[in-house]
Design a protein that fits this description.
Blueprint lengths: L20 H4 L2 E4 L11 H11 L4 H14 L15 H13 L5 E5 L7 H16 L3 E5 L3 H7 L3 E5 L2 E6 L1 H8 L24
Parallel strand pairs: 1-2, 2-3
Antiparallel strand pairs: 4-5
Helix pairs in contact: 2-3
Length: 198
């Protein structure tokens, strides 16, 4: 997206340099902590971004309505953003990222701060994007999110990629053992045998 300069290497976005506007016009992006204009309504906000993307007025109006509905904010189009909860702001940010039907969607911690229902709704939306053939990159510290959504996972450590592959590949090649700890008394009649390392 041209926000940072690389220390080494080269990247191409949809066949173009990240600084080329042709690549950015086909990308949707949601930062971890989006900032929106509190005095705008959700419809005005998305209309503004539709104008920036060069959408015609009739297309823009329809796209705004459809996108708000898609992210679960259909009845909130005329609500000022200052009245939105954290979860609603996150969903509106997702709406802004996808309203122009991008080929590549980059989401930075898209489920951050959401309640369980909001997390499920955003997860389902990401899955629908994937099922529609979109490429979705998202960052998360929650491994369960990666497990439920991702086809491939990259693990970063201090900005350097240390692993890349399907979740099954990473688990089979990186996880040598795991520990399960149970506290409390075991119930009577527990099937099987409980082994102890003592």
């Amino acid at each position: 997206l041209g926000l940072l300069r690389p220390d080494a290497g080269e990247i191409r976005l949809l066949g173009h340099s990240p600084s080329d506007p042709r690549s950015r016009s086909r990308i949707g992006y949601l930062p971890e902590n989006p900032y929106f204009y509190d005095y705008l309504t959700a419809e005005e906000f998305l209309d503004f971004y539709g104008r920036l993307q060069g959408m015609a007025a009739a297309e823009r109006r329809q796209q705004v309505r459809d996108t708000l509905e898609r992210v679960g904010l259909g009845g909130r189009g005329r609500t000022a953003l200052r009245k939105f909860s954290k979860g609603m702001v996150q969903r509106l940010g997702l709406a802004q990222a996808i309203q122009h039907d991008p080929e590549l969607v980059i989401l930075d911690e898209p489920m951050s701060g959401l309640d369980p229902i909001g997390r499920r709704e955003v997860r389902d939306l990401i899955l629908s994007l994937r099922d529609a053939g979109k490429t979705v990159f998202f960052s998360s510290h929650i491994l369960q999110d990666a497990e439920m959504i991702c086809d491939r996972v990259a693990i970063l450590k201090q900005g350097t990629r240390v692993s890349l592959g399907s979740l099954d590949e990473l688990i089979s090649s990186k996880v040598r053992w795991f520990e399960v700890s149970v506290r409390g008394e075991l119930p009577e009649g527990l099937p099987g045998e409980v082994l102890s390392s003592d």
